[in-house]
User: What shape does this take?
Amino acid sequence: MKKDLSIDFLGVHCENPFFLSSSPVCNNAEQIAKAFDAGWAGIFYKTVGIEGMNECSPRFDVLSDDPSSWSGFKNMEQISEMSLEQNVEEIKKLKENYPNKVLGISIMGSTEEEWRTLAKAVTEAGADLIELNFSCPQMTSHDMGSDVGQNPQLVSDYTRAVVESTHVPVIAKMTPNVAEMSDTAIAAANSGAKSVSAINTIKSITNIDIDNMTGKPVVNGKSSVSGYSGNAAKPIALRFITELAQCEDLKDVELSGIGGIETWQDALEFMLLGCRNVQVTTSVMQYGYRIVEDLISGLSHFMEERGVDHLDEIVGKAVNNIIPSEELDRSFMIIPKVDEDKCVGCARCYISCYDGSHQAIEWDNKTRTPKILEDKCVGCHLCINVCPVTDCITPGDIVFKDGQSNSRSEKEIAQQLVYL
Amino acid sequence: MDRNQTLVYEPVEIEAFDFRRAMEEASRCLLCEDAPCSTACPSDTDPEKFIRSIRFKNVNGAAETIRESNILGASCALICPQEKLCEQACNRCGIDEPIQIGKLQQFAMEYERKLDKTYLSKTDTYIDKHVACIGAGPASLACAAELAKEGVEVTIFDENEKPGGMLRYEIPPYRLPDVVIEQDIRQLEKLGVKFELNHKVTIDEKEQMKNEYDAVFVGAGTWEAKKIDIPGINLEGVVNALDFLEQAKVSNGKSPSLGRVVIVGGGDVGMDCASTCKHLGADSIYDVFMETLKDAPATEKEKVESFKIGVPLISEFKPVEIIGDEKVEKVKFEHITNGSTMEMVADTVIMAVGQKTRQDAQYWNQRSDIFTGGDMVNGGDTVVQAVKEGKEAATKIINTTFKN
Assistant: This one.
């Protein structure tokens, strides 16, 4: 299945919306060449600074229910280990060998002068786009990283310094370690950034090592707060993207989505909230560049099934359907029903309903069957979410609360619910 | 859900993983580099790639990968001896159990069937070429599909009423339901392949076809049972396995009373006969073979299945005489090493001791102007091997005939 997945981002033509984010998956030309060959449309090169970093060992920690997949991932790496001069050479090689791929170069300075120097150097080296790293939460200098990204004034100053030093479009990469993201995003946009990318990693302690009494990973008996990413971060990322997409002052700013993307569905979700491309790292660190094959194939099949010819048709389609909670339709309840032929008799629905909801399931321990008590059920669907059997408990009758109604038919409301 | 299996000779479908089970199983996959499962598949069905697609929620992509390499992907999911091929090679064996690759393939193929999806498309590379494929079995179907994808106009000839060859006429429906065979055949039809059924192609006709078509492929199967030369082999009640299975299939499992059955042979065909007899309500069933239980060629899965349905497997005995007047009454066996003998009362004896290549096969195989493949060439191997040979023949046709 070959579909045209091309989409323009900041006036740059991209063969598909799949980018690698600035991280260990984009360290050098040799490594990135493999990513391009695998099918990624472009990259955001691992953040280039004036000097290379001095890193700790070990530097990662993982959160997972089963060893085969990480739900969350913590890393303590900073920006590139290489100097500006070395990175410029790598970027030149990529530009020469892959003229049709998109080279986004992430940079980070600690003074306006450094930002200018970096911007000029990577522009000359062949950057198509420059991303400003205002968001790495584990820098050893407080003049850099997410400490900067939390300060709209610094974001504004550094963005302006870069915009004045380059002709290529500039993207500001946001930290989620703030209450609201729009202030800093607006600061960047007002200073000339054409795009905002979000989110960088979330400040975290993933686990405490109970033997050493410190966080993980343990570095000679100690650990630090540092960035959390992976699929568990996706909901937080989508929330910030929604905020940016709905912000009036940012409506001319293009969005680039980052946060826990593993599958084509994850990517599509970011695009439906207004992102024109997505950036991926954690799942590539776990599974390799090859995951782009299923991102491309899965999105192509989706477009074929839905009759979508161009990605522009779907970008932002979900933005207006995220509304303030006070505006939600609260006129009805959807009462679940149990398929007794499918029920295996585990009673998990009964336990959860009793202990976690409204005691609306009666359990017959002779026949080992649950019964939903319609007069007590509030339609929360905790039982559906906890049931281990596919299609055993499903949405059933729609009950309008005392004399209320709405414009949609019961059938339409029910069809909106899909539980896998 | 019924925890006790019930015996149905012709089930509508065979229970498949639902989405959740498939995701659980796919997440067990180690997603190896240069994956040994993919290397172990004769027809390059590429389990590593399609399992990875399932793992990343791209079921369409999984089904597409299977289809692109194996036109019989739905059938192979059910009947392939995975435990001797991809699943045996699986690196997960170093941790616990191999990934259930067949079940994941079945999941992707069920998705294709239930949503009536089409993944294959034609190019117009060889749009002016015509090829005849003789036989509608696995090798021929695979050859036809490969050619049709390149735009070739292919006609398949078969003497039977329905396409599929041994898939249709030998493999019992409780292992491979008709609906799954039809699903695979439909993919060929969508590629524009034409079927000329009830058409037995004579030798003269084949010679004539050589002039009418740009190439002729013959994949006519084996269809001839090996016979062992022991006294009483021609008595009434002694049948060969292929005839027995075909008869059971065309009569939809409604055979005349079998009485007490003794099966000779420890291969998959022997096991198929054993379970078919069970479905058909035989009074008693014993399966006897010369090999040790471990060495008997049937897959572990089939042997276990025989135990489960209550068919005793008796190893290391060979038949020496079939006793009876006109009709079989007993079979006499001798132990292959220790001299023990055994006589078993029987009303029906099913000989499942292998197939041999049909008499005309050698003639066609030697012809340089005819392309061949499948059981007719290899003497009787797996369906997936026949698919491989059919695909290879197609490549050969393109390289040696079309490109000149």
In short: Chain B has a mean pLDDT of 93.
